Amino acid sequence: MASPTSETLKIWVFLILPLPVLVVLGYVVPTAGVLGWSFTLPEPGVQNYAAVLESQRLQTVIWRTLRICLLTTVISVGLAYLIAYRWRFATPRGRQLIELVVLVSFWLSMLIRAFAWLVLLRGDGVINQTLLWLGLIEAPLPLVRNEFGAVLGMVHFMVPFAVLPMLNSFREVDDRVLNAARSLGATPGQVLRDIFFPLTLPGMAAASGIVFIFSLGSFVTPALLGGGRAVMLAEYIYLQMFQLSNWGMGATLAIVLMAMVVVTALIFGRLFGFKNIAGGLK
Q: Is 202 exposed, middle or buried (0-12, 13-18, 19+ CB in 10 A)?
């Protein structure tokens, strides 16, 4: 007869085993396959990685991706901080309203949002036609099918992802600490700069990491609003694989993109500490 300890161990193995199996089958095996393609297609060797280092076009795409992701992160986190700050000091009804607006944005399809921005920003769209009617401009402004349109659409999509970790961080700020600072003569600006901002920095770091990493893999929004003039790495991978049938180069760029995600996570962990970032997500 099996001992209780061995029975318990079997139960735990049975409960835990599906997770590593899922990770291996869903992530490790496909990643290994893509890595293999990058070294074997169209022929064995490292020519694909050499092309990434030597091709001016590929380097332009990579640097454009990093630039757009950085702009999206800075703007999204800045807007999210203002929203979270307003939420922190709002009434209970005001908090519920802000939370509802943030959650509703998650229910809207990325594709619907992108097409909505197209309607607003295109040459004969609402914004340009309104400005023309008011006489503020003489010709339609190039608001879409460029980096501006791509960044605007991505910011709209990423702000809710930045708000949620910040709300958790802002919630943990103790009102007694803020009141003590005010009672000692600190101005509102000093309270924000010297006390509130440092206490909410973990949430800000977590939001920045989430937005930047999500932005690296953005495809639909920059493809539609960039209009082929602000091609990012994810879109370029799609073009290489499904338009040009260059699976080796597409796989190589996919590995490069994965490496960028890993390096970004390590940098944020090094700068802010993984424990602090995880604390901002609680």
A: buried
